Structures are given as C-alpha cells and as structure tokens.
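Figure S4 source data
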Amino acid sequence: SWSTVELTTTPFEGRRRTVTLSIVDWEDEGELQLVVRSLPSGLPLAGAAVDVDAGLRGGLSTSDPFVTGPGGRVRVPHREGVTYTLSAAGHAALLVTPPVDLDGDSMVVELRRNARVHGQIAHFEPTGGGMVTLVRATATQGGGGQLRVIDSGGSSASDLRSARAVVGASSQWEIAGITVPARSEALERIDVVLTELGQSRTLARGLTIRPGDDIEIVDPWAQGERLEVRVQYGSGRTAGRGVQLELMSERPEFKGQSVVQASAHLDAEGRAIFASVPTGTWTWGVRCTDRGGAQLAGRPLTGRRALGRLLHDGMGEVQLVILSLIH
C-alpha cells in the first residue's frame, strides 16, 4: 500500500517549503526468502549482503543491506519487478531479478567464489619492476599466435586491472579476485606472461581457471641457463635498436603453430640477454618495430621479419645472421 504525506520545512533563508512524499509499506508488498550458496562448494554462505532496489516501479530502495545468517538464509521485501544485488567477500557480485512465476516464497541464489593465481619469479631484478598479466592465446590465420589481454572481471575496461599484478620486492606475485563470467564454466586457454626490463616471458600456458580455483605457478624459467644473442645482417652490419628478438615454441592446440614465449629488444650492439632460458632448440624470430627506427641501406624496416632456429646449449653466446627480411 502507498501513503502520501506533506512535510513543511523552513530553510535557512526563512522561506517555508512544502514537500510531498510517497511512502510504500514493504510489509504489505510481501517477503521473499533468499537462500544463498557458495560455488563451487554449494555450502550455505553466511554474511552475504543483499541490497534491495525497487527498480522502475516507483518504490523506494532500502538504505541498509540485508545480511544472510549462518544457514545462508535471509528474508527480504519482495514485489514484482524488484531486483537484488548480492555480494560477499571473495565472491563475484550478482544482480538477481526473481521470475514473475516464482514457485513459492523462497529462491536459491548461488554466488561464484573468485579464483586466485599466484607464484614467485626466478632471477627477478626488483629495480627493473615487473608485471604479470593473464592473457588468452589465440591462433592467427597467417601463422604464429598472438596474445590478447583478457577481461577477467567483466565487460568494462576498468576490470582489466584485476587481470594484472605487480611483482613485489620478494619476487612474489598474486592475481586475486578473478571472476569467471556467469555464462561460462571456466576461463580457458589462459597464459600467464611476465614483463620486466623490456623483456617478456611466458610463465604458464593453457590454464583452465574455474570458480574458486587457487593456482600456484612455478616459474618454468628457473631451471634455465643464461642466453646471450647477438644479431647481425648478412652484410655484417649489426642489427641494433628497433629490432625485437622473439623466442618461440610450438603450441599443439594451434596445430603446430609457434607462439612467442620470450622477447626482448636488441640494444645498440645488436644484443639481447636473457637471464634464464631452458636449454634446447628454439625457433627464433626478429621483428622490426618503429621503436628506434630500424633501417637498412637508408630504408625503414618497420614491419619486416625473419625466422630461424637456434640451439641453446647453455654455453654462452649465440650469433644469429639475418640473410633476408620479409613483410
């Protein structure tokens, strides 16, 4: 039921104002019992907050949230068109609108527990900074692969910050609060990439992240050996700034295509140094970027590439010679 009252006030200016207020009595509108559970465990979720919003039907929202008890139950005001926003520590918030044909006066709501990915970086240099990012690897029609930053928290760009973490001085990192969208069972084909000192390397490949997962990443580069690569053109000229060196390996799920596992920009002497790289045979690639304005015989080389194979035996320096560049 609704009631209308008139309230007369006297502001500081001394003029009287009359305000008409419409008040709804929630008790006459009915109640709904929400039973809140945590996924994936399915256990009752105590302490979950429920904000009630009357939506566009002309009612007034409640000012304080309702809170679930030990059994995950709470009774809230209810009428057709009302919406509830449910939130709980460590879980993704959820907006719920009960169906018009709701059977009975009780409704089960499940909140998905956030996931967490964490680890420790080997051979980390704190003064150089470091950022760990979750990315989704996708195959490309032209061969090779690409890495795209994923949105782990929703659809807005601001949510991307929850897919990144700064590496601390202790070389540890953590990405918490990862939300799996309600329409998905899991985030699939997720790579974990570290960027530091102008270099990047992949820490994990092809992860599947489900609600509530707690995944520890062991740095696969910890057992590698130092690798120093010097690059020059067939003419003997050093390939310097503006050239990026990439180390690639195959991804079986991409039908034999290779994707970048580590990369670094060459210095002025045509050199790239990796503190730790697993020994073995790698596919290498160089890519001329607009950084540094790479040129050969006075012509800009931006966009040109070269590919080859190198053997990293842990014995020190590897010399690469670029015989030709392609677009």
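Figure S5 source data
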Amino acid sequence: DNMANNSDELEKALEQVEAALIEKDLGRASALLNSVSSKEILENERFQELVNRVRFVSDSRDSIQKMLSEAAHLLKHDDPHQAKVLFKKVVEISPDEPLARAGLQECRRKIDQMHSINLIIQNIRQHRESGDFKSAREYCREWLQYDPSSEQAQDILRDLERIISREREILVLLNQSQELMDLGRNREAIDLLEKLKDLAPGTTSGEELLAKAVNQINSAGLLEIAEAQLDDARRLMNQGHYEAASKRLNTIETENSDLVVEIKLLRRKIATGLEDQETEANFTRKVFEAIGREDLDDARVWLNMVIELNPSSEIFHRLRLELDPETYSDLTH
C-alpha cells in the first residue's frame, strides 16, 4: 500500500510540475518541487530531471531579464545596433518573448531612421558646399521631422536661415546700388556698398560695383579716393579679412609718397596675418584629422593650440555643426 501511495504521489507530482513548466509558471513548478517530502520521490531519476529543468529554465529567465534590461537601456541611449544584438539573443533562447520581438522591431526602426538622417546630413553638406542654401535648409527641416529634438539640426537650420537672410539683404543692396549708379548718384551708391562690405566682405559683385562707382567720381579727387581705399583695406585687415584687404590695396593707384609708405606697411601686416591664418588652418585640420582617427586626446591638444593662437577662432562653431553632440561634448569637456 505504501509503495502504491508513493507511486501515485510521484505521478501526481510529476504531472503537476510538467504542467506548470508547460504553462511557464516557474513559481508554481518550484513550489511543487519544494513541497515534496518523500525520500523515494526525491531520489527518483525522473523527478531529479524535472528539478534540473526547472533550475535551467529559471537561470535562463534571469539571463533573459538581464539582457532585456540592458538592451532597453542601449535603445534608450541611441545605440540600436548593440541593443539589436541582445534582443536577437533573447529571441534565440525564447522565441515567443514579446518584449524581445517588440525591441527588435524598434531597433530596426531606429537604425532605418539613423540611416535616413545620415543621408540627409550628406545632402545638407553637399548643398552648403555648392552654395544652394535653400535646398540645404529643406533637408535640415526633413531631418527635424525625424528627430525634432536634435540640437545639431536646430543649430544648422538657424545658421542656414542667417545665410539665406544675408543673401537676400545682399541682393537688395546690389540692386539699389545699381539703380543709384544708373541715375548718376554715385556717392549714394558708395554709401550703400559700404553697408554691403560690412554685411559680406569680399563680395565680388559688390566690389565690382564699388570700383565702378569710385571710377565715376573723379571729381572727388584721386587722393581722396586712395585714402578711402586705404582706410577700407585697413578696416578689412582689422576684421581678419586679409585676402580682401590685400585685394583692396591692389586697387589703389597713387603716387603720394606718404600713402605709398602706408601701403607698404599695411602689406607687411597683412602678410603676417595671413601666416597666422594659415597656421590656424593647419592646426584646425589637425583637429579634424585626429577626430577622424577617433583620437580625441590628440584632437584636444590641437584644439588648445588653435585657441592659443586665436582666442576668437570659430572652430567651436564648426565643430558643433559637423560633429554629433556626443563627440562634441567628449572633445570640449
């Protein structure tokens, strides 16, 4: 009778544990196993096999939970590629895991989005380089549709809006200056073109109109014109526009000995400024080369050298436009 009872108890226990495992109820399966007190059942080979199965499934579940948690963290912090690897591992262990399947779908969506944004950034860069700022602006707006919170996209869009607004102002000034010159009001045209020089130094159309207007004002006297051109060259140099200043000096025609001396001195200062600009450009190139090698320590060394040479350098603005926010933050902090 005892043997029969133990056999019945064994069958009942095994059936209940197996049913709990089928239902993936590890808690109930473990509780059933822990409730067994019969020595014969405890030593039963099939019972021991079930104990090992429950332990294995329990350990696997802990591992799955850990991978799901880590994958969710990676996905939240914009690393969908690594998150995808972990979600796939979970699916290999537990094909019906809903969180893993949902995570894989979200990873694919984010990876596709990142690919689309990278293509958009390439288009923005190409259109900026070709001077098609309006098309670049449209691509930037498309970027913000994918990622409305992107500070990099917002910065680039603001920069493009400023450029487009400045181009519009330049066109208005050029048209107004030409109209005044057509009416013979050359001095008024020159006043407008002076505003253009402040707005966009070295503008070819503006410089051509200015030269034309100056040539039409012979009554003002060649010396007065030369002095004005020299002052303009000096102003351009003080603003750091050395090449534009050098071009302006080349337009001066004078035999006045004092002006000739001043022109020579100014040329020397411009040459020194150009050397410093070239050095800054070389240092800046070194910064971006180091970034390309992912050597941020070396990049910081060159960045400090740029700032020591020119504290007002625009390199930080360029870095912010061209780098992703994380790399920018790692480099500058």
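The chain has a mean pLDDT of 76. Residues 255 and 263 are 11 Å apart (CA to CA).
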